[in-house]
TrEMBL record:
This is Uncharacterized LOC100485626. Keywords: Membrane, Transmembrane, Transmembrane helix. Pfam families: CLLAC, Cupin_1. It comes from the Eukaryota. PANTHER family: DYNACTIN-ASSOCIATED PROTEIN, PTHR35349:SF8. SUPFAM superfamilies: RmlC-like cupins. GO terms for biological process: positive regulation of cell population proliferation; regulation of apoptotic process. The gene is cupin1.2. One of its GO terms (cellular component) is Golgi apparatus. Residues 95-261, 325-457 form the Cupin type-1 domain.
Length: 471
């Protein structure tokens, strides 16, 4: 991106330099010709001067027009994704950190639908300026996260696929799903059922499928560990992208290539499918659950895990802990699995009671993205750019860049419930505002705030952790 910019700039300069010279020559010649006349040398000189001035002016005008014509479209394409369009609605700087996902475009399939809070390579692929702002922001901040909500109808299936450039961490909000995961080598297939409130982890490029085995819709809130466009390959697309003879050689089926030709490429995108004649196609869907030692590499019972209580709310975590501190045997398997893969996430649910406040804090080692499941709240961010406090409700996605201080206040009568993801497969490092105030010597605070040292004794230390507090 930067190199073409430089080339353009240099082209521009070398264009202006030579084109200036002929202009000058152009108005020097008539002046010299006029020297031959002796009668009204002065008059002629003045006329000549005027001509010179006019040609120079015209020349400069032409040059500047050429300059503008040459440069403005280039600057447009170079900066349109980052600067131009967002700057038109600066008032909505909150959309750098907020995505009203519930109102975004729904991508529908036979067996379900998907909505995205993500970056797009082509700015015209966004369905609103607010979405563009959010996508641009997470990409610019290198958030290492993209969020999608995936709905699968009863008996529908997210077909076997893998993600080329991201891990996936899914939180099942409702329904019941049967998961299959194929590891490298193909000899290990891990399958298990998951229910609402539980978490699934698909490492980058592991082949996986998700089938709704319940009666109601499944709804996954999925975090993908990339801030670029997510790249996915479905098994049917990989199949139909391979020549018949190669398929026949690779699979060696009875009937050879004739058998391969009986496969028909579907017209519609199969991403989430639900064939009308499913009952005729499938006659035995039973499949054993894998052993805990395999299942928990990809599964975590977030809802059933330890609750961390504070005066104003409750947190639960699906995360890595050093030496498995505080985790049971199965949870340790998950913890180790996260730590062994690159770019994994720390997931958590955050429940804030009515009028509770997750006090201002920031993370040393992670970006954070979250989705509002129920309730409503107010969010404030202090970071590298100004943004005013904004409200969030059900279906909204929020984003906190690494190091940016943020708070969340629960503002409805109903409690505020969120699923959040932080970009670390190590222990999340967090610093709360009250803690850094107490940790900073009061004479330093006195000098900083131009306030008497004794005044800072008015900020009390509590025995109970105030991470989520009430007034
Ligand atoms: C159904 O499939 C399972 C797993 O492949 C197998 O163990 C079982 O015997 C099959 N049942 C019938 C009735 O074919
Ligand atoms: C998963 O759930 C389905 C539907 O309730 C059930 O038929 C199946 O036996 C379960 N599988 C396992 C491995 O528990
Ligand atoms: C697997 O883990 C569950 C708890 O999640 C436990 O109830 C079950 O007994 C374990 N199974 C085995 C075979 O250890």
């Amino acid at each position: 991106m930067e190199n073409p910019g430089f080339v353009m700039h240099e082209d521009g300069l070398s264009n202006t330099a030579p084109s200036k010279i002929p202009q000058k020559n152009g108005h020097l010649y008539p002046c010299e010709e006029n020297k031959r006349s002796y009668c009204s040398l002065m008059k002629l000189f003045l006329v000549c001067l005027l001509a010179c001035l006019i040609t120079t002016t015209v020349g400069v005008l032409i040059l500047s027009l050429v300059y503008v014509g040459h440069f403005s479209p280039k600057t447009d394409t170079a900066a349109s994704t980052t600067a131009n369009q967002p700057s038109q609605n600066n008032a909505d700087s909150r959309f750098n950190f907020l995505n009203n996902l519930g109102q975004s475009k729904v991508f529908t399939f036979q067996g379900g639908s998907i909505q995205w809070a993500r970056f797009r390579n082509n700015p015209s692929d966004y369905s609103s300026p607010a979405e563009l702002k959010f996508g641009t922001s997470i990409n610019k901040h290198q958030s290492m996260m993209t969020l999608g909500t995936i709905r699968i109808f009863s008996q529908g299936m997210k077909v076997p696929h893998w993600h080329l450039n991201a891990n996936e961490h899914g939180f099942l909000l409702k329904g019941k799903a049967w998961i299959g995961i194929v590891e490298a080598g193909g000899s290990t297939v891990t399958t298990f059922n998951i229910t609402a409130g539980q978490v699934v982890f698909f490492p980058k490029n592991t082949l996986h499928w998700v089938k709704n085995v319940g009666d109601e819709d499944c709804l996954f809130i999925s975090f993908f560990t990339t801030n670029d466009e997510l790249k996915t390959l479905d098994v049917d697309d990989a199949f139909f992208g391979t020549p018949e003879d190669i398929l026949s050689r690779a699979l060696k089926p009875e009937g050879g290539v004739q058998f391969i030709r009986t496969f028909k490429k579907p017209i519609e995108d199969q991403s989430i499918n639900l064939p009308a004649n499913l009952k005729d196609l499938v006659n035995n869907a039973s499949y054993a659950q894998s052993a805990n030692s395999s299942v928990w590499k990809y599964f975590y019972d977030l809802k059933g895990s330890k609750e961390f209580s504070y005066p104003g709310g409750v947190m639960q975590w699906a995360r890595y802990r050093k030496n498995g501190v505080g985790l049971n045997e199965n949870e340790q398997i998950y913890s180790d699995s996260l730590n062994q893969h690159a770019d994994t996430l720390t997931l958590g649910t955050l429940r804030i009671f009515s009028n509770g406040l997750r006090v201002p804090h920031y993370h040393f080692n992670a970006h954070e993205m979250g989705y509002v499941i129920s309730g409503c709240g107010q969010i404030g961010i202090v970071g590298d750019e100004p943004v005013s406090e904004f409200t969030v409700g059900v279906g909204d996605v929020f984003y906190f860049p690494i190091g940016a201080q943020h708070y969340i206040k629960s503002t409805c009568e109903e409690e505020l419930l969120m699923i959040t993801a932080a970009t670390t497969g190590n222990q999340l490092e967090t610093l709360d505002m009250d803690d850094y105030f107490h940790a900073t010597a009061d004479h330093i605070l006195a000098q900083l705030f131009l306030k008497k040292q004794d005044e800072f004794k008015k900020i009390p230390v509590f025995t109970v952790d105030q991470s989520i507090n009430i007034p």
